[in-house]
Structure formats: structure tokens, C-alpha cells
Automatic annotation (TrEMBL):
Residues 1-21 form the signal peptide. Keywords: Signal. The lineage of its organism: Bacteria, Pseudomonadati, Bacteroidota, Chitinophagia, Chitinophagales. InterPro entries: DUF3823_C, DUF3823_N. The keyword Nucleotidyltransferase does not apply. This is DUF3823 domain-containing protein. Residues 33-132, 141-248 form the DUF3823 domain. The keyword Transferase does not apply. Pfam families: DUF3823 (PF12866), DUF3823_C (PF18003).
Length: 253
């Protein structure tokens, strides 16, 4: 019994000794804030996107300790704004990625030909805006219309090229009316029962540029409900992310 008590006491001492000798990370937690907006260079309005990993993202490279740092990413919100309150203080090279002309471009050999990234110090509350050229401008024409005869909703939109750079004039592949009971509506959040997609083959989508396009929900919407509507269009480039209208609300009578 005495031997058992001795061995238990010895084991506890070893654990306590290990705990006392443990090295703790004494670096302060990241507490700086980086906030701002991603804007359409032409209209100066915030560029609409979707929340999450198919929207727009910030790319941060901390240059305080290395000239070739590992990038750190975080996503903008669907209204084109961003805010991160957990950034380490330091010098950063910052860029944004999304459905717009890339800020960083390369030639066939991999050499950088365009570099519109920003280098700046992040300390305290730091604000920065980016102006970009979207692949497409997608705009509402009028307000959503409730069709009482079949309880559907129709909308009208127009999409046009958002950049004069013909290198980013790929074919328009589709236009999509997204419908959701949630305000975060887009390709990552929609009700397939009501939403409708029009696909274009070849260059046929380009013929719709500048034209009024009418879209009507696939099924009747339930009465006494509120729905959020948004239209996205995209081109056959890169990851084929959508450019969007703003979000509109409709109350079904």
C-alpha cells in the first residue's frame, strides 16, 4: 500500500513539474482592425457579391518579417464591405479577388504585368478601399412585379460589360434569378423551387448585353410571406463567379 501511495505521489509530482516548466506563448493576440469597401471603379458604388467562399476575398501578405510571406485570406460581405478585427499589427501587401479584372496579372512566362495591390501599415483601426472593374454590371429595371393570376413574381434586369479591357470579355454563360426567404441570397443561398436560371450557349448570351431581360419565378410563391430577390450574371472566365444586383424584398399578399 505504501509503495502504491509513493508511486501515485511521484506521478503527480512529475505532472506538476511538467506543467510548471511548460512554455507559454506570450505574444499578444491579434487585435488590429482592417476595414473598407470594394467599389466599382466606374459607379463608385460598392460591388455586390455573395457571402462566403464564392464571393470576394481579401489577400493579406505580412511583410514585417518576410519578403515572401504565406498569404492570409478572409472574405468580404455580400454588400462589398469587409471588416476583420483580428489582424496582427504590421506592414502588409493587400489585394482583393473576385468577379472583376484581377489586380495582379501575369504574362505567358509568369512575369507580373499588372500589380495594383496596396502596401500599407495595419495598426489600430485601419481603413482601405479598392476600386475594381467588374466583369459585368447587373442592374435592376423597375421593381419586382407580383403576378396575381399565377402567384409568381417577375423581374427585369440589364447586364453590360463592366470593363473596356477586351481580355476580360468572355462569353456570358447565364443569368440567374435567386429567390430566398433569407436576406443573404445568392448562388450560395436560394430556394430552387422558385429560383430560375437561363443558360446561354456559345455567344448567344452576348446578344443580351444591354437588353432588358425578364425573369419569372418557376413556381407560385406562398401567400403572406416575405422573399428576397437578387439577379446574378457571369462570364466564362476563371472560377465563373457571379456579378450581382442589389437585394430587393417583396411581400407576397
Amino acid at each position: 500500500m505504501k509503495k502504491l501511495i509513493y508511486h501515485i505521489a511521484l506521478f503527480v509530482c512529475i505532472l506538476l513539474t511538467g506543467a510548471c516548466n511548460k512554455e507559454f506563448d506570450d505574444y499578444p493576440e491579434p487585435a488590429e482592425t482592417l476595414a473598407g469597401n470594394i467599389k466599382d471603379a466606374n459607379s463608385k458604388n460598392n460591388l455586390q457579391s455573395e457571402a462566403g467562399d464564392r464571393g470576394m476575398r481579401l489577400v493579406l501578405e505580412e511583410l514585417s518579417w518576410s519578403a515572401t510571406p504565406t498569404p492570409y485570406y478572409f472574405f468580404a460581405m455580400q454588400d462589398g464591405s469587409f471588416r476583420n478585427t483580428k489582424i496582427f499589427k504590421g506592414k502588409y501587401r493587400i489585394s482583393v479577388e473576385g468577379p472583376f479584372v484581377p489586380l495582379l496579372q501575369y504574362d505567358g512566362s509568369g512575369a507580373i504585368t499588372v500589380d495594383n495591390r496596396k502596401t500599407m501599415d495595419v495598426a489600430g483601426n485601419t481603413n482601405v478601399d479598392f476600386e475594381v472593374e467588374p466583369f459585368l454590371n447587373v442592374e435592376w429595371i423597375g421593381e419586382p412585379v407580383y403576378n396575381s393570376t399565377d402567384q409568381t413574381v417577375s423581374v427585369q434586369v440589364r447586364f453590360t460589360r463592366g470593363t473596356a479591357n477586351t481580355a476580360f470579355h468572355a462569353n456570358v454563360t447565364d443569368v440567374f434569378l435567386f429567390v430566398s426567404p433569407n436576406t443573404y441570397v445568392g448562388n450560395n443561398n436560394y430556394d430552387n423551387k422558385y429560383s430560375v436560371q437561363v443558360n446561354y450557349g456559345g455567344t448567344s448570351g452576348n446578344d443580351q448585353l444591354g437588353q432588358t431581360v425578364t425573369l419569372t419565378t418557376k413556381d407560385k410563391l406562398p401567400a403572406s410571406r416575405k422573399f428576397f430577390l437578387r439577379v446574378g450574371a457571369r462570364i466564362d472566365y476563371g472560377l465563373k463567379y457571379y456579378n450581382y444586383t442589389t437585394v430587393k424584398t417583396i411581400d407576397i399578399p
